Amino acid sequence: METKYLNVWKNELDICIRCGYCFEKCPVFGVLNWESDTPRGKAILAYGLLSGEIEPSQELADKFFQCTFCRECLGSCSADVKLIDL
Known about the structure:
Elements: H1 3-15, H2 21-25, H3 27-32, H4 39-51, H5 58-64, H6 72-76
Helix pairs in contact: 1-4
């Protein structure tokens, strides 16, 4: 992972206010019903990875790749976090 992006990603993740508005729009959450499958959940997991609190794993990678890139979360995010760009 290139270190020049780490601060950019961390700053974007810090913007998330954990409101949960993205839950309602996320089709993956609608099917699987796990918070870690929501955009907010993925933001928390990504922050844990960047801060070293969570170790990389296949299970974690699978969570991130469940995103369908439908962009529905972008319109519902009150903090305007562009999580899919990360």
